[in-house]
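TASK: fixed-backbone design
INPUT:
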């Protein structure tokens, strides 16, 4: 089949499709024709209306997905337990001060024990002296 024959076949197919279409349109009632006309005008108006660029339509979902991914990474990378605080090296002066306080406390406890022992002896001596 030559190219000329293909063109003639295409033209005849196109002509036949047009005839069938025109015949079917001619059989439509007025209400259907009015609805089709209104639908065509609405479609044309929608195409002529200004549209937002694609990046504006997708910016909110993309930002939400990025935020969720960031939160996931931060939670994944966060340590399970918080680390214990590490005490720095203690100076010699601080150690001396701690020892002095501890020695003073020990002396006070010893003195208190001696006082309580004396008090107990005094009470025993008072009780046994008054009863005899």
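OUTPUT:
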């Amino acid at each position: 089949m030559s190219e000329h024959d293909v063109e003639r076949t295409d033209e005849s197919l196109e002509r036949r499709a047009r005839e069938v279409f025109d015949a079917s349109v001619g059989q439509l009632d007025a209400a259907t024709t009015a609805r089709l006309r209104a639908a065509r005008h609405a479609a044309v108006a929608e195409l002529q209306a200004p549209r937002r660029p694609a990046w504006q339509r997708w910016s909110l979902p993309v930002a939400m997905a990025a935020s969720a991914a960031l939160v996931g990474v931060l939670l994944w990378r966060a340590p399970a337990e918080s680390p214990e605080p590490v005490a720095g090296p203690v100076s010699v002066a601080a150690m001396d001060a701690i020892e002095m306080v501890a020695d003073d406390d020990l002396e006070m406890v010893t003195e208190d024990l001696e006082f309580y022992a004396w008090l107990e002896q005094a009470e025993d001596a008072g009780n046994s002296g008054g009863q005899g």
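COMMENT: DSSP finds four helices and no strands in the chain.
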